[in-house]
Every structure is written in C-alpha cells, then in structure tokens.
Amino acid sequence: MKKNLSACTTVLVGKEATIDGSTMAARNDDTFGPLTPQRFVTYPAYHNHPNQVKAYLNKCVVDRPADGYRYQGTPNVNYKTEGVFDESGFNEKNVGMSATESVYANERVLACDPLNTETGINEDLIVAATLPFINSAKDGVKYLGQLIAKYGSAEGNGVIFSDKNDVWYMEIVTGHHWVAERIPDDAYAVTGNRVAIQQVDFNDPNNFMWSEGIQEFVEKNHLNPDKYGWDFRHIFGTADVFDQHYNTPRQWYGHKVLNPSVEQDPLDFDLPFIMRTNHRITLADVQKILSSHYQGTPYDPLGHGTEEQKHLFRPISLNRTQNSHVLQVRNDLPEAASTIMWMSFGIPTFTPYIPFFGNADDIDVSYRETPKKLNMDLKSAYWMYRALSMIVESHHAEFAQDDLNYLKDSREYLYRWVNEVAPKVKGMSDKDACAYLSDETHKMVAEMAKRTKGLMSSLIMHGLELSKLTFIMDKNL
C-alpha cells in the first residue's frame, strides 16, 4: 500500500483553556487532490451482530465486536478507489474521534520496526474499527492500541480522541509502536504532519500512554539521540528541509495566532507541541487557525509579499482541504446536546463552519448524498461550498469583503442557533432529543443554503461586470 502524501493540521484545546469550559479537538482533512467528494453520514448502532470491516487500500480486515454504538463519519464518495476515510465524528456515548493526521517516522526506527503496509490498520478503516466501541477518550487510545498490537499499522498516523473532560492525541509511528499524550486542561496544542509529542513521562500514566515495550525497543536499537530525557519527536520523528517548508510553519502560525507576543521561528524543528496562553481560547480562534493562510505575514499566498515569500511555506487552508472540523464538547449544555461537530465542506478560508449535534442522527440529504461530480442545481452541500470557494478566490480582491461579511453574519446566526436550540432538549428522552435536534438542524441547513446561494448569485453578477472583454465608447461619437 502506498499512501498519497496528505497534509492535515491539528488544533487541540483543554477545557480550562477555553472561554466556555468546552473541550475542542480540531483538524483539517487535506487530501492528495483538490476534489475528493465527501458526504456526512450516521452509522446506526447494532447488537448481536459480529462482523468485520475491510480496507479498500490494502488487505487489512479487522474483526469487530458483536455490539457497536451509533457513530458519525464523513466518508469519501469514491470509496472503492480512494478508501472510505470516515475521518471525524461523535458516537452515541459523546466520544469524539478525528483520524488521521499523517505523520512520518525516520528511517532509523522504521528499519527496526517497519510499517505493515499489506495488512496493517490504515486511515481507510481506522474510525470504523474504533469509534463504535469506545466509552471515553482515554478508552479510545487503549482500544486502538490493542488493534495496533494485533494487526500492526500500515502508516504513520496521529489520532485524536475527545470527550467532555479529556483530549488525547495518539501518534502511531512504526509498525507497532505509538505514544499518546493527554492535553493539559489549561493548555492547547498545534501540529501539522510532523511527530509532535516531545518529552514522555513514563511515570505518569494519567497523562501518557504508550505501546508495550517501546522503552526497551528504543534502548535495544540505540535510537535515542539525546543524552538526557526521552523525547518522542527526537527519537521517532523527522527533521529535514521538507519539514521546514511543509510542516513546521503551520505549527508556528498556530502558535502565532494564539500567542502573538511569543517570538518563534517558522523553521525551528523544536517548536513546542503544547503551550498556554494568557487569554481564554474561543471557537472562532480555533477556526481562524484552520482557515488561515499566513495572513498578516509576507508568506500569505493571497498577500503582498514577494513571489518567493508567498510560495515559501505550505499554508494551513488550501484547495485540497476537503473538510475542516472542530469537535466541541460543551459542558454548559444538556448532555444530549453537548457534542457539536462544526464542519466546513469548502475551503475553510471562504466557507462557514456548520454545527451538527452528535445526537442528531437524521443527516440532511444535502450532506448525506453527494454526487461524484458538480451538478449546477447545487443541492449538494459539498459542491455548493466548493463552488463558493472557487468564486471568491477567482476575484479575491473584489470579493473578499463580501465573503468576510457573509462569514461574520453566518457565525452570529449559527452561534445563536446553537444557544437557542440546545437548552430545549433538557428533560427530553434520548429519542425525543434526537428527533428534535434533527428537525432543527434541517431548518438550519436550509437557511445556510439560502444565504450561501444568495451570496453566490450576488458575486456572479458582480463578476460579470469585471470581465476584461469590455469596451467603453466615447460618449461624443
């Protein structure tokens, strides 16, 4: 199995670091090509039905338990050729999972424990093999760790698990070895495609988990380059010119957004994974990072730097971003409405994050059914938001302000919608809460489609006036 180069960006925030006491686990799902149509679905719970899940990109077959929870996913439409890649969602126990952040180990460690490319766990099926069977974020790490021990790993993957209390980040780097770290409640973390976890404390099982025998593996094979400490990134990760232009700048910019007073170098191999701020982090802050392209720096491809500067670093948001999501668990809302996946199906620079409750299982048809190709009726949410992205970028100087106004108005409407809808499920049965949240979500999706198509119509009209095929006659002729 050869995995196409992918490049996701991850932002994680503990509950005491956020403005509302929520946990947030966020990631951009970036694919190899600019168009990899996706859809948003809910897989039903099942009981007394042992089965298997099979990968499309290698020969991996995972045995699944007889009972599984309902869970969400955002699979590829062309799954038979591109793999399923469910990517992100919540299960009915209010546990979130986002998978994966591709990570790459160095040749020293891979020589000692090669990836199991033929039959190992890969991103294609990792969500389906894990999310229906876990009851907490930490449980997710443990469960996936057991699968890796049994089947091996086909590739390097960073996997996120979250619940109302915890956010865990798990990095699987070789065929059988991994480390996971709990993000401190008062901190946040940012990474982009490099091994992120740094010093590991093997005396602290409440905040670190690891594969069996990993310390002995490192010692036996003489893999630790440091005289002191046990730095997972130094032992297993890479540090080359590619990292400095493709990966480290994204981590640098995430810290720049949340810690603007801290001076860092975008080429630094030792940028911190976890940091703290002197302010509380908002949902908009996290979305700002994931939708960014180095605004306010010379490296912005849409900015005013030199041509060399504008193309020096790979931006965070780009045309290969198929969906951008924030898995938020709000402890100030009723349990049935506490899990929200904020998702953008377009390029997040230009399109809004739409909230979907984890317990609203009737997904709107515009998200549930995505054609393989663009239909001009724009009934599909994926294609509607991709089209909006293209329109805005095509005349960015002229359309940017209208798009910014639309995004600002959308955030105001969607924040209000969540705050009005969620409290009303208090006291409802699970069935009634699920039905209510589903009905209200249908209305919200329709409203956003109306607003989006209205903006697109306005921008197309303006664009027609910007054509270079024009000529002004002298009024005196």
From TrEMBL:
InterPro entries: C69_dipept_A-like (IPR047804), Peptidase_C69 (IPR005322). Coiled coil: none annotated. Its EC number is 3.4.-.-. It catalyses: an L-aminoacyl-L-amino acid + H2O = 2 an L-alpha-amino acid. Keywords: Dipeptidase, Hydrolase, Protease. It is an enzyme of class 3 (hydrolase). It comes from the Bacteria. Gene3D superfamilies: Penicillin V Acylase, Chain A (3.60.60.10). Pfam families: Peptidase_C69. Belongs to the peptidase C69 family. This is Dipeptidase. The lineage of its organism: Bacteria, Bacillati, Bacillota, Bacilli, Lactobacillales.
